[in-house]
Structures are given as structure tokens and as C-alpha cells.
Amino acid sequence: MEDTPSSRLIPDLPDEISVQIIARVPRLHHLSLCHVSRSWRSLLLTRLLFTLRSSLHCTEPMLCLNIRTQRNQSPWLVLNQGRCDTNSLPSSPLPTVGSACVTAGPFIFVLGGSLSASGVPSNVVQILDLRIGGQWFLGPRMSTAREFAASSFLNGRIYAIGGCLPSLEAWAESLDPFDRNSQWVPIDSPVHMRNKWMHGCVVLSGQVLAMADRGGVAYDPGQSTDSCSAWGPVPKRLDLGWKGRATVVNGILYSYDYMGKIKGYDAGIDKWRTVLGVDKHLPKFLCGATLANLHGILCVIWEQRKNERNRKEMVVDWAGIRVTDLGSEGLHGSILWWETAALGVPYGSAIAHCVVAEF
């Protein structure tokens, strides 16, 4: 039976063509589009639309901050280029301390952490669906409670590493975030690598790199998940140079040193190189800047420290840097923007998580 015009997404057009049209509409209009009809709303919430937007190169990045206030509140905000304010997202139903955070498509996964009400580490997985306004729901619980774990997304799976007792077999585990029936799968890991506290995690050269207090670990999911041979130490030079929050942009891992200079690690040559051209324009990031990859642009976010005595609201500066690899001449950065944003939260709050979702 053929669809009648009244049952189609757009009358007089086949649904195959209509889906192609809707997929090209900028994300900021999606909330309005969901009010057109139930079928439009259903389409906007399907993985089909996300997959199609990805294939059409129509996905748009969204830089999200999770703020920890002194009153144990945990609001989520969106930084918008060209605006001095932020968009508010729904707060998580279970505020946590020491949770891990990772994105997969339009979803933010908040893994474990100590529940603010009890102070006890949990295995709860909270998921924020950023489509059409944002909505929280609970995902499958991890095999064990975690606090200050490492997490990442690689090749269609989410990985959670550490943050629990070293004796547990599920010290590392993974999940398919797009399968509603998926459960966490433990990953074999060497016992001697487990006695670590994680403070950072990235994906670099097809490996999950989890940085710890005593030597980082590398996991290659391309090898068998039931073999400890998939694990190993991170390169020593990388381990010694990674300070603070890091991110990977175009295959280069970026961090900053004790002098506040931004530098990039190239795994191909096992070398750190300072990003030139930005020193005179940006402050020294000795107070803990946050780095993020915003669609190929290196973003640096830091709390503004001017006029601290009279300040009642947390204010951040953030800059977008396009980094060019000039080979033997090093890494050169060009500042595309530098903006200030008032976060609408009390002064004295801190950035707990900074993630980029793209859909």
C-alpha cells in the first residue's frame, strides 16, 4: 500500500526525499520542528537522522560545561560563540562528585561518582539526550561503583577504566551506547596496572589513553578483549608531559606545562612541541584551564580572575585556536576568537566537566 500524501512527512514528496531535507536543517531549529507533527518529532529522535547528518557532514558541535557549585549543585550549560551568556541544560537528577563523563553522538554519559546525598561511590549511569531541548534518563548500571574513573568513546563503544578497587575483575569495562539492550562487558586487564587513580583520558592513534597518578595506561580495543596483551604503558615522554586537562585535535594531544604554555604531543615522533604564536595573547594557564576539541578547533576555557573581591558570579574566558602543523618549524596557533561568558552560577564554583557533543 502506498503512503497517502497526508501520511507523509512532507505532502507530495516521498519520505526518502523529506528525510534528506530535514537532515540538512540546522540544529537550532529542531525544537521548533518537533512541533510540526508526531512523525517529525519521532524522526528527530531517531539514530537514522544522526547517521544521515553525519554522512552529509551536517552535524554541529555543542560545547557543554558541567559546573560544580559550593552548594553541591551541578548545572549543565552550553557555551555559544558570539554570545556573552550561556544556554542552560537540565540538571542531572542525581548530582555526583568525581563522576566520569563522555559523549557519544547527541548523548552525554555521566558515569558513577559519589552521590552528593550519601557520599558513597555509585555505579549509576546518567544519560542526557541533547536532542530537542535535553532530557535525562538512566542507562544500564556499570558492573561496579566508580569514582574518579577514566572514560572515553572509541569505535562505537564507551570505555570506563579504574576508579574502583584494583581487585575487581571489572576494573575496566565497555558498553555499546546506541543499543538499548546493551549491558556493560568486563575487559580483562593486568592486575599490576590497576592500582592507579585516574585524572585524564583521551583517544589517540586508535588507543584509549588513561592518565594516572603513577604512570598512565594504554588500551588497544583492536586486540582481543579477553587478553591482557591489549594493555600497556603510555610512552614515557607523553606521561611526563601531560599536565591538567587535555584534548586531541587532528591527531595531536594538547596540554599545557607548568609555565602555562600550550603544547602538543605527536605520537608519530614521540615529541612534545610548544604551540607558537599565542603566548603574547593568552594568559598563563597556571590555574587549571580546560581544553576541548570543537570541530577541529582547539578551545581553551579558563576562569576569569579580574576583580575577584567584588564578583558574585562565575565568569569564564574562552578562546578558539586553529593550530597548523608546520613540520620542522613546529606548531603554530592562530586565535580565531576570544570571548567572555557569564555562567549564571555563584563565584567560587568550578568546571567539573567540559565535553563536546556533535549531532
UniProtKB/TrEMBL annotation:
Matches recorded under Pfam families: F-box, Kelch_FKB95
F-box domain ranges (all copies): 7-53
InterPro entries listed in its UniProt record: F-box-like_dom_sf, F-box/kelch-repeat_ARATH, F-box_dom, Kelch-typ_b-propeller, Kelch_FKB95
Record CDD domains: F-box_AtAFR-like
Gene3D superfamilies in alphabetical order: Kelch-type beta propeller
This protein's name: F-box domain-containing protein
Organism for this UniProt entry: Rhynchospora breviuscula
